[in-house]
Every structure is written in structure tokens, then in C-alpha cells.
């Protein structure tokens, strides 16, 4: 396994982009983004996508390659990114995967649980049953079809209950039987690097970044996107708060303080997700990138 995927994770605004560029330059390799908010070309300021200058310093993939109008799932990303990695590993022993979206990192490093395609009619029937008979009816149906999942799912989460039911009905098998299948072995080794700081530092960096986004034109970007605010891609921190301001619900100062608050919460959730992964080697955001390179080389050559 002389092919090595270097994965860089951590909370938002911690400095992952600049670190990944330093590593890409050192290993003379390319960067694959696993930041699901940066896939969309209409959203650059509010997602803190790499700048044109940063994109020049190292070749990036999956940055602003889709439109907010596209349906682009984590399953689509897994397939596309694995194809890209296969191509990149033909010309280099290293590729860097960077992002704050834990699910997207997992899709590449571990693989996703794969479910059957569900017929639209099944979905419609379940929606009708929910509208006429309520959630209790669906809970009972789930208990009959998949008692194991019924035990552990949040039964008040309508979306999850319906999702499990549609898979049971489509496949004739319990939803739980599709979960936690042995994950696919990847044809490359994986070295995971986490970047972090004390909570105060992370929060301070987030607050500064939001101020910077505003200076860079976040309000105008959100104004241009306002007609599309119902799209899934735009139901995200940084945009939905400004839409509330543009709709006259909040004044601008309050909207900006909500962006900061919601981004801090997002960073906390990111850290909770990544802290569960014991394969990640953590460094502080001040760490000299050369010592991170030494660590990567040591692990890779062991």
C-alpha cells in the first residue's frame, strides 16, 4: 500500500485550507475537498471556499463544481470522489482529503451503508398514511417490520421512521439488516490529521471569519441567492439567517450574531463527530506544518 490518503479534519475556521495547501506543495500532490457546502458554485463567500489565490497554489477537486439547482447526494459524492482518487493515485503516491463534513469524510474512508432505490409510489403512500393516521400508525408498522430498528430509532423523528419503512417495504427486508455492513477495504492507506484549539480560540476565529465574510460581500451574495432560498443547498448557516433579515424578520446585527452563534454550534458538533474517531492524530492549529509532515512520513513508512 504505497498510496496514502492524508485526511485533514477539524472544526470550521481552524485553518484546514492553509495546512492542506502547505502539505500539497510539500508532497507535490492534489487536494480533494469533502466540504459539502463548498461544492456549489453560487456559494463562495458564505462557505469560506478557497480563494482564487489559494486555488492557484494547489490543484483542488470538488470545489464549486455543482450548481445549487443540482441534486447531489453523499452517495453521488462517494462514487465521484473514489473515481477521482483512483485517477490521482496513478500519478502520485499522496492525495489530500480535506473537510469538516464528517459524513463525507466517512463516505471516502469507510464507505456508506448502501440502501435499495425506493419507488416514489411507496414514499407517497407512506406520506398519505402519515397525513391521515399520524405517526403512531407508522411506529406500529415499523415495529411489525423491523423490531430491532424500532427499539433504537427516535420514534418522534418522522423522517427517520418513514425512511426505515420505505426501505423495509421496497426490499422486503428489515431496514436494520442494511446497517453497519462490513465496510469496503480501500485500495490506499489512510492517515488522519485533526486540527484543533481551545474552545475560546475556535469561537474567536469563527467570529472574526464572519466579520471578514461580511466585508467580502456576504450580504450581496445572499441577496442574489434569496430567490432560491427554498433549495436544500441554501438551508445552511450563513445564508438562512440573512434570508430572515431580507424577509424583514430580523435586523442585520441580530442576523449576524445568529450566524456567529449557529457557526459556533456547528463547530461543536463537528468536534463531537471527529472526537469519536480514534484514528485521528490531533495537532493544535499553531503546530508547524513540518512536524505534521514528519508524522505523516513516519506513519506511512512504518
From TrEMBL:
<keyword id="KW-0547">Nucleotide-binding</keyword>
<dbReference type="InterPro" id="IPR027417">
    <property type="entry name" value="P-loop_NTPase"/>
</dbReference>
<dbReference type="Pfam" id="PF01715">
    <property type="entry name" value="IPPT"/>
</dbReference>
<keyword id="KW-0819">tRNA processing</keyword>
<dbReference type="GO" id="GO:0005524">
    <property type="term" value="F:ATP binding"/>
</dbReference>
<comment type="function">
    <text>Catalyzes the transfer of a dimethylallyl group onto the adenine at position 37 in tRNAs that read codons beginning with uridine, leading to the formation of N6-(dimethylallyl)adenosine (i(6)A).</text>
</comment>
<protein>
    <recommendedName>
        <fullName>tRNA dimethylallyltransferase</fullName>
        <ecNumber>2.5.1.75</ecNumber>
    </recommendedName>
</protein>
<feature type="binding site">
    <location>
        <begin position="10"/>
        <end position="17"/>
    </location>
    <ligand>
        <name>ATP</name>
    </ligand>
</feature>
<dbReference type="GO" id="GO:0052381">
    <property type="term" value="F:tRNA dimethylallyltransferase activity"/>
</dbReference>
<comment type="similarity">
    <text>Belongs to the IPP transferase family.</text>
</comment>
<dbReference type="GO" id="GO:0006400">
    <property type="term" value="P:tRNA modification"/>
</dbReference>
<keyword id="KW-0067">ATP-binding</keyword>
<keyword id="KW-0808">Transferase</keyword>
<comment type="subunit">
    <text>Monomer.</text>
</comment>
<feature type="region of interest" description="Interaction with substrate tRNA">
    <location>
        <begin position="35"/>
        <end position="38"/>
    </location>
</feature>
<feature type="binding site">
    <location>
        <begin position="12"/>
        <end position="17"/>
    </location>
    <ligand>
        <name>substrate</name>
    </ligand>
</feature>
<dbReference type="InterPro" id="IPR018022">
    <property type="entry name" value="IPT"/>
</dbReference>
<feature type="site" description="Interaction with substrate tRNA">
    <location>
        <position position="101"/>
    </location>
</feature>
<dbReference type="InterPro" id="IPR039657">
    <property type="entry name" value="Dimethylallyltransferase"/>
</dbReference>
<keyword id="KW-0460">Magnesium</keyword>
<feature type="site" description="Interaction with substrate tRNA">
    <location>
        <position position="123"/>
    </location>
</feature>
Amino acid at each position: 500500500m504505497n498510496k496514502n490518503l492524508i485526511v485533514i479534519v477539524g472544526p470550521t475556521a481552524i485553518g484546514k485550507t492553509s495546512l492542506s495547501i502547505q502539505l500539497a506543495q510539500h508532497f507535490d500532490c492534489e487536494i480533494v475537498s469533502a466540504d459539502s457546502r463548498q461544492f456549489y458554485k453560487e456559494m463562495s463567500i458564505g462557505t469560506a471556499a478557497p480563494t482564487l489565490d489559494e486555488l492557484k497554489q494547489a490543484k483542488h477537486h470538488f470545489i464549486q463544481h455543482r450548481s445549487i439547482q443540482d441534486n447531489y447526494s453523499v452517495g453521488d459524492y462517494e462514487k465521484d470522489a473514489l473515481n477521482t482518487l483512483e485517477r490521482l493515485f496513478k500519478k502520485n503516491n499522496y492525495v489530500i482529503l480535506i473537510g469538516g463534513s464528517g459524513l463525507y469524510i466517512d463516505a471516502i474512508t469507510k464507505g456508506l451503508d448502501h440502501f435499495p432505490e425506493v419507488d416514489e409510489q411507496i414514499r407517497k403512500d407512506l406520506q398519505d398514511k402519515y397525513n391521515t393516521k399520524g405517526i403512531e400508525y407508522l411506529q406500529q408498522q415499523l415495529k411489525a417490520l423491523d423490531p430491532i430498528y424500532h427499539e433504537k430509532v427516535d420514534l418522534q423523528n418522522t423522517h427517520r421512521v418513514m425512511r426505515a419503512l420505505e426501505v423495509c417495504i421496497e426490499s422486503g427486508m428489515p431496514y436494520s439488516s442494511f446497517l453497519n455492513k462490513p465496510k469496503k477495504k480501500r485500495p490506499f492507506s489512510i492517515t488522519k490529521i485533526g486540527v484543533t484549539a481551545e474552545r475560546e480560540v475556535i469561537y474567536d476565529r469563527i467570529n472574526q471569519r464572519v466579520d471578514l465574510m461580511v466585508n467580502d460581500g456576504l450580504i450581496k451574495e445572499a441577496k442574489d441567492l434569496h430567490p432560491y432560498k427554498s433549495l436544500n443547498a441554501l438551508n445552511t448557516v450563513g445564508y438562512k439567517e440573512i434570508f430572515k433579515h431580507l424577509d424583514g424578520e430580523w435586523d442585520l446585527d441580530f442576523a449576524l450574531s445568529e450566524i456567529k452563534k449557529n457557526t459556533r454550534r456547528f463547530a461543536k458538533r463537528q468536534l463531537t463527530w471527529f472526537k469519536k474517531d480514534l484514528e485521528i492524530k490531533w495537532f493544535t492549529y499553531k503546530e508547524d506544518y513540518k512536524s505534521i509532515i514528519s508524522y505523516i512520513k513516519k506513519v506511512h513508512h512504518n
